[in-house]
Amino acid sequence: MRLAVAGGTGTVGRYVVEAARGRGHQVVVLSRSAGVDLASGAGLAAAVDGVEAIVDASNPPTIAREAATGYFTDATRHLHEAGHRAGARHLVVLSIVGVDRVPGFGYYQAKLAHEEAALAGPIPASVLRATQFHEFPGQILHRTRRGPVALVPRMRVRPVAARTVGEALAVLAEGDPAGDAGELAGPGEDDLVAMARRFADRRGLRVHVVPVRAPGPSGRAMRAGALLPTSAAARLEGPTFAAWLAGDDPTAVTV
User: Fold this and answer.
1) How many Å is the maximal CA-CA distance in the chain?
2) Within a domain: 252
3) Which domain holds residue 19?
4) Is residue 126 packed enough to be buried (19+ CB in 10 Å), middle (13-18) or exposed (0-12)?
5) Do 171 and 165 meet the contact criterion of CB atoms below 8 Å apart?
6) Which CATH number is 170's domain given?
């Protein structure tokens, strides 16, 4: 199968590419480095020529609600239009567990718009919601660190490896469109602050992790567990955060 991966150089997208190639598929990476601009649609028609399925693991350069919403809706429209003309039969979109249970958080509102745009277009779609990645604590440390201090929000999470999510998306693309493709999470619940501290210790980072309470209804929802899977049918797949952190993949623990 010829498969296109939007955001194929990103945290999850690169694992979609790796898994799909390992399963014998011909993979086209849709990224700016490959000459494709999803937001404008430039280069997209030629890139998706002959593809049977598209996996969208792309992300905007901002989490601001208006800008992120504009990116997701524009990119999704372009994927639908170009993919439909090319004869694609399936669009697979990565989203976030609990995205509809955290009020007032702009990026999550943008992801809901992303889901709606994916399901409303001409290509039959599947939306897989995943929990925060094992990579997330390292990303938070990188974004919030100022000198020896990093601010990490308190929240309950059930983290999953980005590689696990990428593999699931590749498999999903092979099948029939499902609409709601369910929830995917890791095997154990954890606390983001504690994860960040363990990450820093593993990497030998000299950083003081300071817990903070995210404000407003969104912060309360995250602390209360709104980002945890609620479906009895949710898939819980390893590795655990501890096993992932102790692994040999040098890219897994890079800040």
Assistant:
1) 52
2) no
3) 2-245
4) buried
5) no
6) 3.40.50.720
Alpha helix positions (H), the chain = 13-22, 44-47, 65-86, 106-120, 136-144, 162-174, 192-203, 216-224, 241-245
59 Cβ contact list (under 8 Å, min separation 6): 7, 10
Which of 107, 114, 147, 149 is CA-nearest to residue 128? 114
Domain count, the chain: 1
Domain annotation covers residue 74: yes
Residue 66: Cβ-neighbour burial (10 angstroms; 0-12, 13-18, 19+): exposed
- List per-residue pLDDT tens for the chain, 255 residues long: 999 999 999 999 999 999 999 999 999 999 999 999 999 999 999 999 999 999 999 999 898 999 999 999 999 999 999 999 999 999 999 999 999 999 999 999 999 999 999 999 999 999 999 999 999 999 999 999 999 999 999 999 999 999 999 999 999 999 999 999 999 999 999 999 999 999 999 999 999 999 999 999 999 999 999 999 998 999 999 999 999 999 855 444 444
CA-to-CA separations, 191 to 70, 137, 153, 156, 248, in angstroms, rounded: 32, 10, 10, 5, 23
Structure token pair of residue 32: 């700016």
Q: Are 143 and 164 in contact (CB under 8 A)?
A: no
Alpha-carbon torsion 171, 125, 232, 184, what sign?
Answer: positive
